Amino acid sequence: MKKFLSILLCAALAGSCVLAGCGSSGESKPQESTASAASQTQDGKTTADPAEGLTPAASTDKYRNVYQIFTQSFCDSNDDNIGDFQGIISQLDYINDGDPAKGDDLGADALWMTPIMPSDSYHKYNVEDYYNVDKDFGTLEDFDKLVEECHKRGISVILDLVLNHISYKNPLFLDACEEVKQGKLDDKAKYFEFHEPGYYGDDVKTIKVGDYVCEANFSDTMPEWNLGAEETKEEFAKVAKFWLDRGVDGFRLDAIKYFNNKHTDGVAFLKWFVDTCRGIKPDVYLVGEEWSDDAEIVDKYASGIDSLFAFRFAQSSGEIVQSMSMNKGAALIKKFVSYDKKMSEANPEYINAVFLSNHDQVRIANALEGKGVEAEKFAANVYMLVPGNSFTYYGEEIGMTAPATDADKWYRLPMVFDSDNLPKITVDGASGTEAPKFGGVKQQLADENSLLNHYRRLIKVKLSVPAIARGRITGQVSFDDAEVGAYTIEKDSEKLLVIHNFNASAEKTLTITDDMVKNAQVIADFLGSSDAGHLAIKDGKLTMPALSSVVIGSKQ
């Protein structure tokens, strides 16, 4: 590990001009561990890093380590206190420099950007024009340059697309309102959910227009599209083609739970949109926001969509954080296994989308505050080693916290690249970005045990061992210990065993048998501190420190 991290540190110095501020997948097989018998100690530890011999390779399919940024606040290139496309471009080499073998970047290979289309809000989820970008972020030409620079580095670009509602300032809606005021509902009004008062009942928000009302689930500035209308579908087909033709690789679909209403089948509409996008770009990647229970998510997967966010495992009240608080590793894995089974039955090609937090939730470092960096590293292990696509919210990899938790804007403050040079971006009036406890990117690059370098190691291993993301969970492994969570992953003829020790203070000594993995060897370990040495299996025994994780495979 020290050799790998020394490369990171040298590269960090070489790339310091990028990190100082803003504006200035093919598949490979894991290599055999370099750990030798001579380096083994009596307790089964080793001084050699088992992951040192791994060779990462760029992804060329839909399986990615996705980095989410809040476009308005990530990085400001022109000192107007608003994030922009040029700011993102200036930090792409931090996200991924295009050479996975060098190991001097985060390694994320997909970028999810929150909405970029013109809007009068800072968050841009109320779209005024689906065929342009907000001038605060730059021009369409700037956006095209961003896509080009991402693709040079092997980064897929995923745009946040809002199909459930629109801005009340959108010209199409304004024209529809004029017709409705005249009592006409057979032209542009068809695009939207206009009905007579009382149609929805008192529990649904509406906007009054003349003698009619339009559904508005989020606010009276965001009227709902009529997703059952052929006219609306034709419009969205044009929108999808416009962006996919510009090189966009996929869409994150906002609030798909609201695709359903009294006369629109949300699953049928979602299937139509998925099929339409694939007709334009066969390898398009689509992920949807559905924060309901498992049954609703199963229904949505019947549409054939690639991914739906696994909300039940995320946020401060989610299964991962709660399981860590109660040391219930085995119980959490049982839930992961059940979830995977249900979703794969609904869509055998589904790609799980696991995350810890996003722009709508308090930052995960707040939820784990006081538990130490080891807890943040361990939480990263748990979600990133689940098969599927991992989604990392910017700043999560350096332990950014929200200075307040009473509004979303506090979760969206700017990225800290250098804690000695804090950004001045304001978010809906919120300012005062705080330096993370462990420093910004620049500071954490200089610390081999930092949270940032831990994230880099996780992604490097995932890029080296494709089965971690692309395999299927084939069963839970019991060690007769409720604090140990373990499961097997299989892809083709390859079998892996992933083990997590959820105990925050005690190590665990486990027996690894051929029934679990034949000729078992440690492929990679993920520890709170490298001071504990690296893990190795000795005489069938594996000793895991507190809050540690390991990936085990078969000797080649």
Q: Any overview of this molecule?
A:
The chain is of the alpha/beta class. Helices cover 28% and strands 16% of the residues. The chain contains 16 helices and 20 strands. The chain has helices at 2-14, 16-19, 85-90, 92-95, 140-152, 171-181, 230-245, 266-280, 294-301, 319-326, 329-346, 364-367, 373-384, 441-445, 451-464, 467-470, and strands at 45-46, 65-69, 110-113, 156-161, 194-195, 206-209, 212-215, 250-253, 285-288, 307-308, 353-355, 389-393, 472-476, 484-491, 494-501, 508-511, 520-526, 534-535, 541-544, 548-554. An eight-stranded parallel beta sheet has the order 10-9-8-4-3-2-12-11, covered by helices on one side. Residues 1-18 and 24-38 have low confidence and may be disordered.
Count the helices. How many?
16
**Gyration radius from CA atoms, angstroms:** 24 Å
Number of strands: 20
Instruction: Please bin the fraction of helical residues.
Output: 25-40%
Please state roughly what percent of the residues sit in beta strands, choosing from under 5%, 5-15%, 15-25%, 25-35%, 35-45% or over 45%.
15-25%
Please give the largest β-sheet.
8 strands, parallel
